[in-house]
Amino acid sequence: MLFLHALRQEIGGPRFDDIMDEFGRTFAGKPVSTKEFLAFVEGRAGKPVAGLAKTWLEGAGLPDDKGGSFSVETFQAELERTLIVFGTGDETAMNREAAERLQKAIVQRHSNFTVPVKADSDVTEDDLKNHHLLLIGRPDCNSVTRRCRDALPVAFGTRSFVVREEAYAHAGSAVAAAAENPLNRRYSVVVIAGLSPGATLRAAPLLPAQRAAEIVVFPDGGGVRSTVKELSWPAK
Predict the structure, then answer these.
(1) CATH number of this structure's domain 74-227, picked from the four choices 3.40.30.10, 3.20.20.70, 2.60.40.10, 3.30.379.10
(2) pTM of the model
(3) Which residues contact 133 (CB under 8 A, 6 or more apart)?
């Protein structure tokens, strides 16, 4: 998914979309190798993309020069390497229930695959380093969220959070925000946190249905506001 995003940035959004539409019509119902896909794209785009593909697809982890880029849905491509961690520092019962609701929502969306759930007090360093982490609870509720807060694109205050210089302080508001796992850049971390137990409970099961956004805000009163991180790749 990240490679395709990088490819779209390299080619240009409208041109990439046209190429992908043509690719889908041309190969509908047929198996296609990566080599064939890249050849098709290069032929339509009129520029080489093999170097970009090699950088993203053949190395370990994420390309170092890209600084990493994850969305709130990245984990869905590797559910077997995903862990839900709920906070026990405060609002423990509701955080646990929110984690279980998220777990159930993932099962319903992904053919009965069950992502394990652990309390922040029970996770090991190996757990944290070798998984995409779905963290339930604010930094004052979840010790793992607190460890990751500097990596997040959201600033948490006392019963508030700030997204793109816009502050949210209503108890009914919640946010989901994605970032690199600071313990292992190979994986992502997504924090799902409400400004009240009820807000966290409401937002958590909605996560699997969100599109590829860096931040999703669930404001009080309903609705969803998503923010896609704009990336800029060096010219090839």
Answers:
(1) 3.30.379.10
(2) 0.71
(3) 82, 83, 85, 144, 148, 181, 187, 188, 189, 190
